[in-house]
Automatic annotation (TrEMBL):
This is Trafficking protein particle complex subunit. It comes from the Eukaryota. One of its GO terms (biological process) is endoplasmic reticulum to Golgi vesicle-mediated transport. The lineage of its organism: Eukaryota, Fungi, Dikarya, Ascomycota, Saccharomycotina. It comes from Kuraishia capsulata CBS 1993. InterPro entries: Longin-like_dom_sf, Sedlin. One of its GO terms (cellular component) is cytoplasm.
């Protein structure tokens, strides 16, 4: 089981991207996307942004659940109050753990926004942020 996580800014720019594998069911955390799929991951997530923008105004929830699918892979989305989108491409159906993952990532992102060294809508290059995202992925995915 593999996951591709992306944070998309308000200008449809990628803020943070991570490819991860599962640690559950004796996984080693290595993503196992096929080679041709690995190249398409950013495009699949980006194409689902149109659906997010349609659904977010019809729904009053931050977690939008699974909004799109592509060759057996699903795209789940979460929209922050600041309109930054968290997108997760995955091949398993685990809505509750994905929802918890997004909530924890949102808390982590808010802490990042409070840093005087981070400017809104810029790429996140913090090693500490990356490490914490990986720990959350290990915990929930």
């Amino acid at each position: 089981m593999s996951y591709y996580f992306a944070m998309i800014g308000t200008k449809d720019n990628p803020i943070y991207e991570l490819e991860i594998g599962t640690y559950k069911q004796s996984g080693d955390g290595t993503p196992k996307f096929p080679t041709e799929m690995k190249e398409l991951n950013p495009f699949i997530v980006h194409s689902a942004l149109d659906i997010v923008e349609e659904v977010q105004w019809k729904n009053n929830q931050l977690y939008l659940k699974t909004i799109d699918s592509f060759y057996g892979y699903q795209v789940s989305a979460y929209v922050t109050p600041g309109n930054v989108k968290f997108m997760l491409l995955h091949d398993v159906k685990a809505e509750e753990s994905i929802r918890q993952f997004f909530i924890e990532i949102n808390d982590l992102y808010v802490k990042m926004l409070l840093s005087p060294f981070y400017n809104f809508n810029e790429s996140i290059k913090s090693g500490s942020f990356d490490m914490r995202v990986r720990l959350l992925a290990k915990k929930y995915l």
